[in-house]
Amino acid sequence: MAYEEAQKALIKSHSLSMENREKLSLGGVEDVSGFDENLIVLTTSQGDLTIRGEQLHIDRIDLEAGQLEVRGHIQELSYGEPLRSGSLWSRLFG
Questions:
Q1: pLDDT tens digits, residue range 42-93?
Q2: Which of 77, 76, 34, 70 is nearest to 55 (CA)?
Q3: Distance (Å) of CA 84 to CA 6, 30, 41, 70, 91
Q4: According to the model, what pLDDT value does residue 1 have?
Q5: What's the DSSP call for residue 91?
Q6: Most buried residue, 13, 36, 40, 47, by CB count within 10 Å?
Q7: Contact, 37 vs 56, CB < 8 A?
Q8: β-bridge partners, 40
Q9: Domain ranges (residues) in the chain
């Protein structure tokens, strides 16, 4: 494994900063599953994140850097647990 790949595997940070429920800056974003003006669904390094609100707009997105900025009236942030790897038996009796 190359040095850069090893470093990326170790870094699993996720950050979130919100200003006045109108501007949201995120780090550690891996994918955007879907979005409209009321809902944005993201995959982050710490699990799935759902953002609910009104007049939501993605101002900036850079998936290589894992950065995302959202503007609008933010009403709810909801995390889903990240999927654990391994077989069903190892997850149940692990």
A1: 999 989 999 999 999 999 999 999 999 999 999 999 998 755 555 556 556 6
A2: 70
A3: 20, 16, 19, 28, 7
A4: 52
A5: H
A6: 40
A7: yes
A8: 35, 51
A9: 11-81
